[in-house]
Amino acid sequence: MRRKLAAGNWKMNGLAASLKELAALAQAITADDQTGILICPPAPLLYRASEAAKGTGISIGAQDCHGDADGAYTGDISAAMIADTGATHVIVGHSERREAHHEDDAEVRGKARAAHACDLTAIICIGETEAEREAGNTLDILAGQLAGSCPDNATAANTVIAYEPIWAIGTGRVPTLEQIVEVHDHLRAKLIARFGDEGHAMRLLYGGSVKPDNAATIFKADNVDGALVGGASLKATDFAPIITALQAS
Ligand SMILES: O=C[C@H](O)COP(=O)(O)O
After folding, report:
1. 236 C-alpha vs ligand 1 centroid, how far in Å?
2. Which string of b and e fits 167-178 if b means at least 16 CB within 10 Å?
3. pLDDT tens digit string along 27-41?
4. Which atom belonging to ligand 1 lies closest to the Cα atom of 168?
5. How much is the pLDDT for 31?
6. 54 labelled ligand-binding
7. I need a labelling partner for 169 at 20 to 30 A (CA). Which of 93, 133, 158, 208 fits?
8. Which CATH class is domain 4-12+37-68+75-244?
9. Ligand 1: residue whose CA is nearest its atom 3
10. pLDDT at residue 55 above 90?
11. Does residue 209 line the site of ligand 1, with CB under 6 A?
């Protein structure tokens, strides 16, 4: 059975005072072995978040890393630096990075490789635009992104795939359960075709306007192993019921 994962991406939100949400979250939930809980705060908070999360059962992840181990890349952060803060995961290829920073599949693949080299779990994001969905190209687009963004050394331990339809991010719009099932079943088949048993065991998260009131429905899909949550992960009072819904699924 795959271990579920509730991952919160704080994006460019949060100051040191926001770390009180970690303790509040730990208090609001009953941790279990079947469900991992991850918070990805902005980079300046990684070390303090890792310290604050000790003993809570919450893991800490970054939102991006560079594909090279080190070098003259002003403002960038390497996977080793992230691991050095105590973080264990890193999101790569989020659509906001793909769009604003022009990251393509090859660059995302390089970032995932860099993460693996530092024993970080890479959460590789893929997702279609609204125009691609309307044109009926969703499954092909996603298959291409998955193939191009996922390195050959991906395993169930070092890689998580997050499907985030771009039109659902921060919009309050969510695909139907049937649409989510269709995509996740398709991605599972692609992962199994490429990675065999590892592909069967790799976690597949859904992301895009997951909220306390829609989480239980989304988690009904067999191949949804958790969620990558943006806005609703900022407050423990919103994220805790999503985690509880995942545990109950
Ligand atoms: O990384 C998280 C996603 O982009 C989803 O964000 P959202 O839950 O605010 O729609």
Report:
1. 16
2. bbbeeeebbeee
3. 999 989 999 999 999
4. 10
5. 87
6. no
7. 158
8. alpha beta
9. 230
10. yes
11. yes
DSSP state of 73: -
- Does the annotation flag 231 for ligand binding? yes
Q: Could you tell me how far CA 56 lies from the centroid of its own chain?
A: 20
Catalytic residue among 21, 66, 89, 94: 94
**Do the annotations mark residue 10 as ligand-binding?**
yes
Active site residue 130: no
Q: What is the ipTM of this complex?
A: 0.99
Domain range annotation of the chain: 4-12+37-68+75-244
Measure the CA–CA gap between 239 and 110, rounded to whole angstroms: 31
